[in-house]
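$ run holo --ligand "calcium ion" --emit tokens
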Amino acid sequence: MDEIRKIILDCDPGHDDAIALALAGKGKGLELLGIGVEAGNQTLGKTGRNALSLVEYLGLDVPVALGADRPIKRSPLTCPEIHGETGLDGFPFKEIERKFDERDAITMMKDLLLANDKVTLVPTGPLTNIGLLLQTYPEVKPHIEKIVLMGGSMGMGNVTPAAEFNILCDPEAADIVFSSGLPIYMLGLDVTRKALVTPKVIKKMKKVKNKAAKLFVTLMQVYNENQFKTFGLKGGPLHDPATIVALLNKDVFTFKKMNVSIDTSGGPSYGRTNCDISSFLGLPANAYVATDIDRKLFFKTVKKTLERYSK
Ligand code: RIB
Ligand code: CA
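-- output --
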């Protein structure tokens, strides 16, 4: 029997966060200990409500706790052009009955980590919660096996030419995380932009008759429209689910260890992940960066995992 991998998801739902959450909730061999939420795609009030709606709709018995409502230093960013005014436009969730965990996200994650060993942190939003967790409770570090995050880019950004949204939302927090010495696996735009939800993918997902697939199809139709309007893409990139897929199937992504530094200068490259793939600077490698993706296997893994929902 394969060992169960304990994970904590930290997110800013967000259409692609929603699919990552659905995969995390039923992924083969995964135990989702808890979900932290922060401001990012939308304000915390909206991302928090979206996370609660998702766990309730999917029937996941997992605590959801509210974290940071703003970055450590810079002014907040949001992304309504992609995720809409609610942060999760397009799905008719019912009135929420589920309640938030009474702890804030950082306290909840600290408690979960001190009570468990070999936990994988899975951030799919700005790194504010994780940065504050490591800064406030350094004693949790021995309980963290690795951090598998969606963020950054070896190449172009998606908010500025230099920076990807999650990192640019809080470069100072990202710097804390990438300087932590913990094993980091970075799923950046270089690979997630190849995981486009094309009409062919949606057609295949429509054949899965359960609530998770209905969530996927409904959310992706809105997400795709917004991605086309904003970036001219023929399908929405499944950014955040790349983290969970990387945990579910080691053959989907190719990683290369390298030094990654975060630009916190505040200039035109603010929030850039400088990925030194050729080790020009001779600095110690501190992250495994995804350099390639088996797109077919990626979507096969997504579909197989969503099929695990009973109804
Ligand atoms: O750049 C992509 C990231 O920004 C994803 O996490 C998406 O949800 C948005 O937060
Ligand atoms: Ca996100």
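-- notes --
The longest helix spans residues 211-231.
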